[in-house]
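Lab channel / #folding
Pinned by the channel admin:
"Please post every new chain as: sequence first, then the structure tokens as a reply. Keep commentary short and put observations after the output so the thread stays searchable."

First post following the new format, from NK:
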Amino acid sequence: MALFDLPLHELRDYRPRIDEPDDFDAFWSKTLAETRAHDPAVSFEPVESGLTGLRTWDTTFAGFGGHPVKGWFSAPVHAEGPLPLIVQFHGYNGGRSLPHCWGMWPLAGFAHFVMDVRGQGSGGNVGDTPDPVGSGPSHAGFMTRGIEDPESYYYRRVYADAVRAVEAARSHPLADPARTVALGGSQGGGITLAVGGLVPDLAAVAADVPFLCHFGRAVTLTDADPYSEIARYLKMHRGKEETVLRTLSYFDGVSFAARGSAPALFSVALMDQTCPPSTVFAAHNAYRGQKEIEVYPFNGHEGGAMFQEAAQLRWVPKTLERAD
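Reply from TO:
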């Protein structure tokens, strides 16, 4: 593994032109209006995690299409609230896993909610939320499901679910809606940027080595999955490049970053072939609000790992204090 993208001094000023559709905002307003037309149907059922320092609730809410989406809500065992709230989104093909896997933020004094990404959960962490929506021909994985039309594209449902996840988590009596932080790594980082652009009143966002950014460059720069799913689709479906890239333009983290206003903490790894550094910096440099970025020069997609978690544990409380 070696440096393969632009040098760091160029990355810090990298601001590519993104072909954003004229109806980007209208598309997302319509999507969220359709999603919110369904009753949120939020339920919190207490479960035993085996961890005596926290309480956990098996959570269900209505996401895109009114489809049930799962999650875990956890909080310190003796907390009375309201507590600052972390809403977390997991990585590609992961799932909400088991409740004892999410103890870090509750142990730091936060309420915590992790959303189960629909249709995933068979690679690394188990998931419990199906995706009942079918699609046309797609490459194995999730990147090309419904990719010839933004209305049917898989991540339309996921991003809408994520906005509803914030709303559902905020409805818990232990959560403080005014101190809500969206957070995630890789796919979770890309979803975090989408939420940051679609939910205007977040207190902070933290996007760790974010995926789903600057699609036009990513699909031609790296051979690594998941971006290469798109390249392999286009290898078979010749002549579909314009259609596919138009669809992806509605889901690009760079466009959502340009709409984000909450303080943001990014991270990037300069040897990351899964989420190339130029795609991460494209989103960071476009970000509208106050922002910082942690750079890991000799790491791949693992990025800062536990060191980035430590950075978040320092940054999030300080950011919330400044906002008070």
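NK: The first strand starts at residue 43 and ends at 47.
TO: also worth noting, The chain has a mean pLDDT of 97.
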